[in-house]
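Late entry, written up from scratch paper. The run itself happened at the end of the previous shift, but nothing got recorded in the book at the time, so transcribing now.
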Amino acid sequence: MKSHYLFGSLTRISDLAERPFSVTPLPKTAWAGGDYVVGEITTTPGCMRLLELENGRMAELADGDLVVGAFGQRAATLEAVGDWRAIGADQRFDMLTSAGLFGKLTSKSLFLPPLMGLSYRGHVMVNGDKARMSDYVPTAARLQDCSLPVILLVGTSMSAGKTTAARIIVRLLKRAGYRVIGAKLTGAGRYRDVLSMGDAGADRIYDFVDVGLPSTVCPEEEFRRALRRLMGMMMEDGADVLVAEAGASPLEPYNGSVAIAELERQVRFTVLCASDPYAVVGVAAAFDRQPDLVAGGAANTQAGIRLVEKLTGIKALNLMDKATLPELKGLLKQHLGKL
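Output as recorded:
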């Protein structure tokens, strides 16, 4: 009888859930980032026992469940760090994100609950070959530069408010009649952020998973090539504007600085989402880039807003306050055109 598998959202670009495949253990010398593999759940601690499925729904796992995910790397400043290359001889690893990003945990915040543990059951094999995320990238997608006007969202760290700001901006642009693409260009594989841009009204949504990357912790040239392929896919949609989020911060090892450099000529408006006012100063100084607006936790109160503006001279708005939306709309109109 065929085993029952649960498919993490990193498999959403594939057809593995609909077609026959086998599972074969391979020597570690044959392993690579982006390989689709099967792990058996060995520990399901507390609130971290959820798997994000292909459609974005969250499923609760139990010991013994078989999960299809992909080898990759994560380097989250506030949560967890891990790498598939650190998996030892016992072939045990961790669920680095709920999307099915598999690797060995090497560092974790004390504030983050324990991650789910898995044991390696084997690689997903299709027609005798191991299945890789890159196998499912459309071959017709051309490498291309971005030619759309871009609203860029960057952060001082993860969980700084970028996706929330992106949703608000997408809604304003859609109400103004724009055809909008929402995209997350860097980070570690999760589907929820770009799905939330779709929920806000984006006509199409994309992220780096669409071009075969489980996360963007990878060599710069590999990321640059994947990003240009992603741009080629987006340019075919006939959109008016791209709302692009660079996950984490530009200074972290997710290639955020590369993504920003690739888009730089098309960026019309930049929102820096910051965890606190002093982080705004740090990122602006280290990255030598002046945003048009500061949002996120640094702008949650009038005291925070005053401090941001005192330290940097940059406009700050609490975008969660509906009273600020006319001002945000005016700023977008000034930089993008009629709203």
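The helical segments are 162-175, 192-199, 220-235, 256-263, 277-287, 302-312, 325-336.
(Scratch paper discarded after transcription.)
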